[in-house]
Amino acid sequence: MSTTDHSGPADDALLGPADIRELAATLGVRPTKQRGQNFVIDANTVRRIVRTADVRPDDVVVEVGPGLGSLTLALLEVAKHVTAVEIDDVLAAALPSTVAARLPGRADRFALVHSDALRVEELPGPPPTALVANLPYNVAVPVLLHMLATFPSIERTLVMVQSEVADRLAAGPGSKVYGVPSVKAAWYAEVKRAGAIGRNVFWPAPNVDSGLVSLVRRKEPLVTTATREQVFAVVDAAFAQRRKTLRAALAGWAGSAAAAEEALVAAGVSPQARGESLTVEEFAAIAEHGGAGAPRR
Q1: How would DSSP label each residue in 31-92?
Q2: Given this model, what pLDDT does residue 31 score?
Q3: Are 227 and 191 in contact (CB under 8 A)?
Q4: 204 preceded by cis ω (within 30°)?
Q5: Where does residue 27 rank: exposed (0-12), middle (13-18), buried (19+ CB within 10 A)?
Q6: CA 4 – CA 49 distance, rounded (Å)
Q7: What is the pLDDT of residues 58-107, one digit of tens each?
Q8: Segments in the chain below pLDDT 70
Q9: Do residues 67 and 94 lie in contact, with contact meaning Cβ atoms separated by under 8 Å?
């Protein structure tokens, strides 16, 4: 049964395929590959995302790349407040009107930031407690890592990304797809795959599958005397030449292969190991023993 005031969940508040196409036509919007735009046209999918994200009535949610507002409306049905970050001029201008028209009773819980998510350093209102987003495929990992670094108040994250990216983010040491995104995500959170999303719920339908990734922030930060920047420098160096042993791969970082070996031995890591076998804790231990020009501890 539909409610008329739209102050809470309503059957007709969310956007269906016809609504999406009508909105896009009115705005003259054609999804662009350049920005990785694929709009979700299925109300059941966005409600499933909100459920999987464990969005609660007291949550302050930040959404990146809201597009025409499919997921935004589903989030507003549940959350205390939603701030959407949108880079596209036309989409950013239209979203507040869509929210006001379809969920007028909750429009005061919505804020829009018209900006590139990679440049956002602050958000209006209370600090965000959750990040939920259908991330554009081409910038998914940088945006995710930037948001986690910039907003430590974000406790829970659920992002929809290309399936292959989801696998990489959630991979553990020893996996063939374990790499820089896996380690950097693990610095912040416990990461796991949280489901698959079919192609037919998007317009236009992408030619790749999508996956959901859940990130629950560590209750206690990783214990290390190295800074995040120092640890990430080791990670970047280790995977830049992933076929090489760490002794060789970290030579540039440490100043020489011999210095790299010294740092590895001091950290309790075999110089013959490769980056894909190390945990984030082991990368942190290596970072504690300094790179080129870094003080030795």
Answers
A1: --TTTT--EE--HHHHHHHHHHTT--TT-EEEEE--TTSHHHHHHHHH-SEEEEEE--HHHH
A2: 72
A3: no
A4: yes
A5: middle
A6: 25
A7: 999 999 999 999 999 999 999 999 999 999 999 999 999 999 999 999 99
A8: 1-11, 32-37, 291-297
A9: no
Alpha-helical segments (H) within the chain: 17-27, 43-52, 70-78, 89-102, 140-150, 163-170, 180-188, 228-240, 246-249, 251-254, 257-266, 280-287
For residue 222, give the amino acid letter: L
Rounded to 5°, the CA angle 154-159-163 comes to 150
Q: How far apart are alpha carbons 286 and 282 in whole angstroms?
A: 6
Contacts of 4 (CB under 8 A, 6+ apart): none
Residue identified by tokens 């990785």 is: 36
Q: How many CB atoms lie within 10 A of CB 195?
A: 15
pLDDT of residue 292: 58
> In this structure, which long-range contacts are made by residues 97-103, counting pairs with CB atoms below 8 Å and at least 24 apart in sequence?
98/15, 98/23, 98/68, 98/69, 98/72, 98/73, 99/69, 99/72, 99/73, 102/6, 102/12, 102/13, 102/14, 102/15, 102/69, 102/73, 103/6, 103/10, 103/13, 103/73, 103/76, 103/77
Residues 39/141, Cβ–Cβ less than 8 Å: no
The reported pLDDT for the residue numbered 171 is: 98
pLDDT of residue 36: 59
